[in-house]
Amino acid sequence: MSTTYATLEIERKGAVATLWMNRPEVLNAFNEELIRDLAAACAELDVDDSVRVVVLAGRGKHFSAGADLNWMQRASSYGEAENLADARIFAGMLQALSGMSKPTIARIQGAALGGGTGLAAACDMAVAADNAVFSTSEVKFGIIPAVISPYVLRAIGPRHALRYFQSAERIDAEQARAIGLVNEVLPLDQLDAGVASIVEPLLAGGPKAQQAAKQLIAAVAGRPIDAAVAEETATRIARQRATDEAKDGIAAFLEKRPPAWLA
Asked: Which terminal residue of the chain has fewer beta carbons within 10 Å of its beta carbon, N or C?
């Protein structure tokens, strides 16, 4: 049984859990409560072995319009120490989402602005409806997209970030795909089918191997291809080959049977 949360719902269908942000009346803008709920739900689903894939989505017409205006107003009255504590909670939630041990997919329609762009980028993959719009809009309010920056930079790279972090331009769905912020763009009525088309091959892979693959990317991304990286990759594949999952997966292929994780 899933925990009940005030600001979101967890919908389970087989091995897929969809984490629905459920504040459509404010375009799923997040405040302290939604941030806490998202962090707790990510922790809950991460240790649930029955869940193979996590989809992050928003109820209503929009994915997330970013920070709730009332929350922003409260934060504007904080001193530096209070703002630091507040930002650490937000950063912890994004880290929990990004660091999940299983594949994560952002399902995006309508607005994904500010922190909403950060949520999309913190997921492993993103599928957007053709009406989706993104923006790192923080400079319009005299602030910076600091907490979301590691995830957005990972997705779009520093060259695009130099433009959009400073201009706060709106980025439509096709441009978001062009710069690497999303993987797929589809008509709104095909959005769920697009998510399902990614979920299907994800469910065919070994769960421990997928976790190790995420860790591999984090370990080698951005490093020079030198002797240290070569040794890192050799060590990781040797460790993985020795796991029960790998042994069963290879045996299943040779014996023309499903591996244990599909049985």
From this structure: N
User: Among residues 48, 57, 44, which one has the least CA distance to residue 15?
Assistant: 48
Read off the pLDDT of residues 188-236 as tens digits, 9 standing for 90 and up: 999 999 999 999 999 999 999 999 999 999 999 999 999 999 999 999 9
Half-sphere exposure of residue 78, counting CA atoms within 13 Å on the CB side? 13
* pTM, entire model: 0.95
Positions marked catalytic: 138
Report which of 126, 100, 122 is spatially closest to residue 44, judged by C-alpha positions.
100
Backbone φ and ψ of 248, nearest 5°: -70, -40
Instruction: Report the distance separating Cα 175 and Cα 213, nearest Å.
Output: 28
Q: What's the pLDDT tens digit per position in 105-132? A: 999 999 999 999 999 999 999 999 999 9
Work out the number of other CB atoms within 10 angstroms of the CB of residue 43: 14
